[in-house]
Every structure is written in structure tokens, then in C-alpha cells.
Backbone:
């Protein structure tokens, strides 16, 4: 049997008909909202490169977290800025750091909201790299030790999930061991397992003041390509994910989302653990800029983008659109 007995348009006749046959449904339960914290009190400054996003001090981040929780969003992802930077990024594991203080403030105000913390050194090192530099290279093993200290300090402050985004080899094992040895067996690890060296992190690096320093121009350290993945490599992404799961990651992430939907799908087909996708700053601002220019409908484009990431196979959507999307999904 074929046309005219079979007419697929019959399933598209009305909004209710389309809802009935919809294969992929977004839910607020899928969303994670990123927040940027910086030291101080009473700070709420708009981030120039990222529309609708703010730098918040730990006292005000709790208000924002309460609003996020009221929208039904289950989790926030915290990024921090330090008081000052040094070679090793020591501000990252300070008990009084902005992230550590923000975790405590959020847990006091909205205990049920999941707090995920980004674990990386790039916002804390004077070099702008995600690790420590020795002899002109990012020293993998020395960096892993420091990252484990950062993860531990976030766990001590009350983080539910730590999310390493540095792309060093072996960091998941180092963190899992540090957490187990110190009584944080219940703290989960969401690994940025397949993180690609991407131009789409541009607006974020302004927000986190974390771009590699200009002294490295003309060297292999001018960008993050010696640790973040080559966007051309899909099979290697599966190896990265597999290793992180073996080392003890509870969930894995693919990042960015939109130019890597095929990687999300491959990961979904191959692995059974929860898969997160990060709809990154450049993807977010590209949509905003086009909407501001009157070129597309912001809300419709946003929901189409988020649906595509979920359809590709992601369970967890980390997105700066989370609040706007949650309002539409209510
Ligand atoms: C830190 C980190 C980055 C992002 C998340 N964690 C930037 C980078 O790797 O340079 C990007 C997030 C975004 O663009 O929204 N390593």
C-alpha cells in the first residue's frame, strides 16, 4: 500500500494530533542552568558577551538559585572566578573561594537543588590554561593532582556532582580516588568526556576571563588543542568516553552540542550511562544575535535547538536557555 491510502500529513492536522504522535518531548527535568560566581558581596553584573547572564557574588547567587528551583529546573552548574590568579590556579581549591561559598549559600537556601560544579583551572591560572605548565607543556599528571584537590574542596562545601572540564588523561580516576578516600563516596562525577577544541566557547572565555594568554601566540599553547579534542574525530570521542566510564564517571558529556549531534547519537547507541550535552555560549549567542537582528524567532529557534539535542540522544541539556525554556514548558 502507498499513496493515496498512506498520507503522513494525517498525523499533522492539528496541534493535539501532533502532540499525540510527538516522539521527543522536552521536559524541565532535563535542564541544567549554568551560573557564574565571583568574589564579593552584592555583585550582580551583566556579562557583556552573554545576553541575560550575570556575574553573581555568593550571597546573590542563592537568590538566583531559588528562582531556578521555582521554575522546576533540577540543577545548576557553577563556574567561578578567583580573587587573583597564579601559575597553579590555587584559587580553585580555596575554602573561601567564590564557588565554595556559593555552594554553601545555595545549599542553605535551596537544599534540594542539585549543585554541579565545573572543575577546571583555566579561570584560576595566570596562563589561562586548564592545567599547570612545565617546560612549555601542560603537565598532565601534576594537573590531575590539583584537579582532585578542587573536586574535594567542592565536595566539602556540599556539591552534589563535580564536573571536570579540563580534558587531562586520568583525571576521573584521580578525582574518584580523592572523593572515596575522604568519605565523599556519594558525590557523583559528570565528566566532560568528549570536549572538543571549539570556537563556540568564545563568549564564555570573556565571561570566565579564561582565554589562554597572548604570550603563547605562535606556540602550541596558543589554544587548547593539546588537550581538547580535534572536532574531526568521532571514533576518538568514543575512546574518551569509554575511558572515563572505566575510571568511574557516573555521567558523561559531549560538548559543544550542535556541531556534535552525531557524537551524541553515537555515544547514546554505545553507552548506557546518562549522557549530557552542553549547548555552549557561542551556540547560545549565535541564536540571540540572529534573533536580535530580526532574522529568526528566538523562542521557536530555542525549542527547536533543544529538541534536536534531546533527539540526538542527550538525557541532560546544559543550556543558558534553561530558564526561558522552563517558562515555556510549564
Ligand atoms: C573550562 C570550560 C569552558 C567551558 C566550560 N568549561 C571553556 C573552555 O574550555 O575554554 C565552555 C562553556 C561555554 O562556552 O558555554 N575549561
Residues:
Amino acid at each position: 500500500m502507498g499513496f493515496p491510502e498512506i498520507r503522513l500529513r494525517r498525523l499533522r492536522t492539528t496541534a493535539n494530533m501532533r502532540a499525540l504522535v510527538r516522539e521527543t518531548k522536552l521536559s524541565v527535568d532535563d535542564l541544567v542552568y549554568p551560573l557564574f560566581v565571583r568574589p564579593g558581596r552584592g555583585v550582580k553584573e551583566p556579562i557583556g558577551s552573554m545576553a541575560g547572564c550575570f556575574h553573581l557574588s555568593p550571597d546573590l547567587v542563592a537568590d538566583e538559585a531559588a528562582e531556578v528551583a521555582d521554575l522546576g529546573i533540577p540543577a545548576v552548574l557553577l563556574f567561578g572566578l578567583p580573587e587573583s590568579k597564579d601559575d597553579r590556579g590555587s584559587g580553585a581549591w580555596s575554602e573561601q573561594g567564590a564557588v565554595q561559598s556559593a555552594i554553601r549559600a545555595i545549599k542553605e537556601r535551596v537544599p534540594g537543588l542539585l549543585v554541579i560544579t565545573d572543575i577546571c583551572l583555566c579561570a584560576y591560572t595566570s596562563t589561562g590554561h586548564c592545567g599547570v605548565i612545565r617546560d612549555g607543556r601542560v603537565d598532565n599528571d601534576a594537573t590531575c593532582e590539583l584537579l582532585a584537590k578542587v573536586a574535594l574542596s567542592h565536595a566539602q562545601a556540599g556539591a552534589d556532582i563535580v564536573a571536570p572540564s579540563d580534558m587531562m588523561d586520568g583525571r576521573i580516576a584521580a578525582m574518584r580516588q580523592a572523593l572515596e578516600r575522604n568519605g565523599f563516596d556519594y558525590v557523583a562525577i559528570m565528566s566532560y568526556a568528549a570536549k572538543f577544541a571549539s570556537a563556540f566557547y568564545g563568549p564564555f572565555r570573556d565571561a570566565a576571563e579564561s582565554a589562554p594568554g597572548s604570550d603563547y601566540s605562535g606556540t602550541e599553547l596558543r589554544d587548547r588543542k593539546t588537550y581538547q579534542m580535534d572536532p574531526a574525530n568521532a571514533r576518538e570521542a568514543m575512546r574518551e568516553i569509554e575511558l572515563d566510564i572505566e575510571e568511574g564517571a557516573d555521567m558523561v558529556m559531549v560538548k559543544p552540542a550542535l556541531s556534535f549531534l552525531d557524537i551524541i547519537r553515537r555515544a547514546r547507541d554505545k553507552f548506557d550511562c546518562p549522557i549530557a550535552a552542553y549547548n555552549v555560549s557561542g551556540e547560545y549567542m549565535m541564536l540571540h544575535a540572529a534573533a536580535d537582528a530580526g532574522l529568526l524567532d528566538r523562542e521557536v529557534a530555542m525549542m527547536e535547538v533543544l529538541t534536536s539535542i534531546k533527539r540526538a540522544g542527550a538525557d541532560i541539556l546544559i543550556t543558558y536557555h534553561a530558564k526561558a525554556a522552563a517558562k515555556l514548558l510549564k
The longest helix spans residues 140-157. The CA atoms of residues 71 and 327 lie 7 Å apart. The chain is about 40% helix and 15% strand. The radius of gyration is 20 Å.
